[in-house]
Amino acid sequence: LWFKESTAKNLRTRDFLSPTTVLGTLFADGQVPPAVISKVTALHGSGVLPMAAGEVTREGLRVRVDRAAAFRAVLAGGAADYLKPSRQNQGWVVINCPALHAKPDTPTPEMLTLGHLRSVLLSDHVGALLRKQGFAVSYCPTLPDNSKMVTFLQALGIDWPAAPEQDTDRGRRTSGGGGGSGAEEGEMEGALRVNLKRAFQEEGLLGYDPSIGTCTVHRDAVSHLAQLDLAAGDCKAARVTAVHVTSCQDEFRQQQMAVLWRASGAAHAQRHLVCGPVKTPGSQLSATEYLQLRRGQMKEASEMKYGDQVEGQTWDHIIRVMTSATRFELLSTVHSSPVTLDVQREGSVSIKGPRGGVFVMYNCARLHTLFDSYERGVENGVYPEIPEGSQLDFSALKEEGEWLLLFNYLIPFSELLDQSGQALDCEGGGARVNIKAEQMCRFLVSLSKDFSSYYNRVHVLGEPLPHLFNQMFCRLFLLRALRELYHSALDTLNLPPIRQL
């Protein structure tokens, strides 16, 4: 059993640790034979970091990585393999967001509660995560393309599927599968009562509420089933999974819809991603009011820092993206847990403080500014072009902060991407699925804190002296990979990087 270190304090002495309690079960008195230590440090192969030394201490067997070799292995090759999942998945996932379904009409932005907004943002994020892992992803429902909701979602950076209104109306009027006749009867009489108990028992569905029994099917439920049929009908894969992303208040109703869809003939696997409530003590805000408040705070904070510069299309774009980045407030908490938001105006959003998405975007912009400065230096003849990685001596990267950025962020990123697909693959866990979508936001915030600490301490673009160029180039290699890491991680949140601030 090995523990990977993550704290800056412990990384000064070790990178991996096998604790004494483990060693005591393997070797008499915990005495590790020298031959074993030699074999550990001699490990090599694909995905194995080059080891430098191992020693037994009171804490256990600690091992350090050959850092110069690790920097070379990761950075000289471009780091591309570390910025994508270790394997590509197959299959098709339908992300179903009940908050966007007609009830009975298409919802408007003003009708969205913060709980609904959380489920919409989570739907978008989970879909982007799964697509990055190789899954084909489609979204349900399809919205009318000229609706206010489509415009609202586009302002958030969410490209939700839309179609001409007559096509979405047709989907509401018809239901595929075995539920078609029942849907027509329900529409004629206003509602249809269906006993789901038999279907529930025959299917042996795990994790569903055992009290699911008679369900009243109104026109909006027929529309919901029709949209699911249309979305699943477009899937060109043998394996299709529907993930229903819903609020905890609507979970029971969505379980009824899932059983009803199964009873109508849909054989696809179905999982439920359930969001906890969103609380705003002392205030009641809709989703649009919340975003308007955050936009005003973002504009005010920008004006306080940059003054009269904050005007024109460029700044409108920056403030719009930074406002959209406040989604970290809703996505950084475990999806099943409640979120409490401070929406008081005096709790203004800080550009530089470690306040989630705004802080992340600010530090991403700092990286772009750094490389813009370097490129201007090259144009003006101050610095030479960056050479090939094979020409650099990466032993110049001696700062603990540099190793921390590589070891805790660049190297394990592909493993972080793998986790959501693995969660979807787990069978027998019941109706709910735990994709741990909060981990990407937390990863980015933690990365930004460590990068900010390093950047404030180290002067990357130093004096243009030849004997200093090797270290500068090595640092630029590391920070260039870090910039690509930001882009890849922000892509799973459909947030474009800010290139200047």
UniProtKB/TrEMBL annotation:
Q: Where is the composition biased (Gly residues)?
A: 174-183
Q: Which Gene3D superfamilies match?
A: Isoleucyl-tRNA Synthetase, Domain 1
| Region Disordered, annotated ranges | 162-187
Q: Which BP terms in the Gene Ontology apply to this protein?
A: arginyl-tRNA aminoacylation; tRNA C3-cytosine methylation
Pfam family, any one = DALR_1
Cited InterPro entries:
DALR_anticod-bd, DALRD3, tRNAsynth_Ia_anticodon-bd
- Taxonomic superkingdom: Eukaryota
Task: List the Gene Ontology MF annotations in alphabetical order.
Answer: arginine-tRNA ligase activity; ATP binding; tRNA binding
Tell me which residues make up the DALR anticodon binding domain: 360-501
Checking SUPFAM superfamilies in the record gives:
Anticodon-binding domain of a subclass of class I aminoacyl-tRNA synthetases (SSF47323)
This chain belongs to which protein, by name? DALR anticodon binding domain containing 3
